[in-house]
Design goal:
Chain A is mainly β. Helix content of chain A is 0%, strand content 50%. By secondary structure, chain B is mainly beta. The radius of gyration of chain B is 14 Å and the shape is globular. The chains are: A mainly beta (113), B mainly beta (112).
Chain lengths: 113, 112
C-alpha cells in the first residue's frame, strides 16, 4: 500500500530534550516536506527536500532541522524543543515538486511542557 | 506578499449544495489545490486547477479564475461524512522551493 508513515503519532516531552520525528514514504517520491498545523494559522511549511541531500527552509524553519540521506526518509529534528513548538506535524511527499498532489502522513501530535 | 482567504466556517444540510470560496494573492501562480481534512486526520487531495474553468469529479467540482484570483469548491448532494475542513492551497512561483501555500481552511458542518 502506498503510504507516508510518521512516528511517533503522539509525543509529550519537556523543554530542551532533543527529539526526532521520523517520516518514511514507499512511493519513490522525490519531494518531501514537513508542515505544522496550528489552530487559526493553517498548515505552514517548515522544511522541504527536492531530492536526496537537497533540503531547504520553508516558512517557519526556526528551531527545526531535517536531513535527507535516503530518498524514502525525511526525519524532523527538534534539537531543543520549546513550548511554542507544541503543534500537529505532518510529513508529506509528492512525485516531484510541481503539479503533483501531495500525500500526507497521519500526523504527529507533539506537546512540549 | 502571499495571502489566501477562505471563510472560516460554513453550515449546510444533507442533500444540499454548498460552495466554498477561495481568493488568493500570490507573487506567482502555478496551480490551485483543494484538500479535505477530517478532524484529527491528514489532508487528502480533492482537486487541482491550473487553467480557468470548471473541473468536475463526482459530487465535487472546482472552479478557477486566474484573472480574478478566485476559486471555489462545489459540493453537491451533501452527506454527513462531508463534514470536514476544506483547504485551499496555491502553488507559487516555479523558482521557489515552497510547493504549496495553504489557506487557513473552511470548516464545513453538515446536519441532517
Amino acid at each position: 500500500e502506498a503510504q507516508v508513515t510518521q512516528n511517533p503519532r503522539y509525543l509529550i516531552t519537556v523543554t530542551g530534550k532533543k527529539l526526532t520525528v521520523t517520516c518514511s514514504q514507499n512511493m519513490n517520491h522525490e519531494y518531501m516536506s514537513w508542515y505544522r498545523q496550528d489552530p487559526g494559522l493553517g498548515l505552514r511549511q517548515i522544511y522541504y527536500s527536492m531530492n536526496v541531500e537537497v533540503t531547504d527552509k520553508g516558512d517557519v524553519p526556526e528551531g527545526y532541522k531535517v536531513s535527507r540521506k535516503e530518498k524514502r526518509n525525511f526525519p524532523l529534528i527538534l534539537e531543543s524543543p520549546s513550548p511554542n513548538q507544541t503543534s500537529l506535524y505532518f510529513c508529506a511527499s509528492s512525485k516531484q515538486r510541481g503539479t503533483y498532489e501531495q500525500y500526507f502522513g497521519p500526523g504527529t501530535r507533539l506537546t512540549v511542557t | 506578499g502571499q495571502n489566501i482567504d477562505q471563510p472560516t466556517e460554513m453550515t449546510a444540510t444533507e442533500g444540499a449544495i454548498v460552495q466554498i470560496n477561495c481568493t488568493y494573492q500570490t507573487s506567482g501562480f502555478n496551480g490551485l489545490f483543494w484538500y479535505q481534512q477530517h478532524a484529527g486526520e491528514a489532508p487528502t487531495f480533492l482537486s487541482y486547477n491550473v487553467l480557468d474553468g470548471l473541473e468536475e469529479k463526482g459530487r465535487f467540482s472546482s472552479f478557477l479564475s486566474r484573472s480574478k484570483g478566485y476559486s471555489y469548491l462545489l459540493l453537491k448532494e451533501l452527506q454527513m461524512k462531508d463534514s470536514a475542513s476544506y483547504l485551499c492551497a496555491v502553488r507559487g512561483p516555479s523558482q521557489a522551493g515552497t510547493a504549496l501555500i495553504f489557506g487557513k481552511g473552511t470548516t464545513l458542518s453538515v446536519s441532517s
